[in-house]
Every structure is written in structure tokens, then in C-alpha cells.
Amino acid sequence: QVQLVESGGGLAQPGGSLRLSCAASGFTFSTYGMSWFRQAPGKGLEWVSAIYSDVRDKRYADSVKGRLTISRDNAKNTLYLQMNSLKPEDTARYYCAAKKGFLIPLMADYIYQGQGTQVTVSS
Predict the structure, then answer these.
(1) pLDDT for 24 beyond 90
(2) Contacts of 24 (CB under 8 A, 6+ apart)
(3) Of 36, 52, 90, 118, which alpha carbon lies 20 to 30 A from 43's?
């Protein structure tokens, strides 16, 4: 059974940090590209960041570049999102998703998707 389980969300103050994790099981994680998406209250899904299976190729949305860092540990079947210098506009539910091939910023194109973890940035 394929599973993507996000964790690490919570309440953070502006300027603070959080580290999200996405634990994968039921498929060969190391051969899939991965992305993080987020959905803020009352808004649509937004692509945040992507990392290809080779670990080195990483992409970021302009809104998070320089503050969020994507990484993966293929030995642990886990994807990460280190979130620094958090802003209130980062408040959203964060989802991880997996697919083969080119990582486009459209979650519907991803074959596997998690249930999300909530991040709230507020003082």
C-alpha cells in the first residue's frame, strides 16, 4: 500500500523555523521525483518546491526561494522541507507528492499524494 505521510507542521512565530518531513512507503521512493505543494485558507494549491530522484536537481517557487530548502534521504525514504524565516503568508496546509518524469507544478499530475500537515505562522 502506497503511503506518503507528512509531519512536522505546527505553530511558528514570524521569523521562526519548522522542518517538514514526508515519509514514503509502498513504492520505490528513490526513483520518483518529489514536490511540496501548499494550500492556504480560501486559496488554490500552490507548488512550493521540487527535487528530482538524483537529489541534486532542486527547484523553488520565487515566493520561497532563499527561505525554504528541499532535500531527500533516499536511504530513509523521506522527503524534507526546511522552512526558515517564516512569514504569515506561509500559513497553509503542506502536501508532498510523487511522480516520474518531469516535475510540473500541478499536483493533479502526481501519482501519489499525502494528506498534508498544517503550518501556521502567527505571533
Answers:
(1) yes
(2) 3, 4, 77, 78, 79, 98, 112
(3) 52
The whole-angstrom separation of Cα 93 and Cα 7 is 11
pLDDT tens for 75-105 read 999 999 999 999 999 999 999 999 998 898 8
* Mean pLDDT within 20-43: 97
Instruction: Give residue 48's Cα distance to chain centre.
Output: 7
- Residue pair 6/114 in contact (Cβ under 8 Å)? The answer is yes
Q: If 0-12 CB within 10 Å is exposed, 13-18 middle and 19+ buried, where does residue 96 land?
A: buried
First-last CA distance in the chain: 40
Q: Write out the three cell numbers for 89.
A: 503568508
Residue among 72, 104, 83, 96 nearest 11 (CA): 83
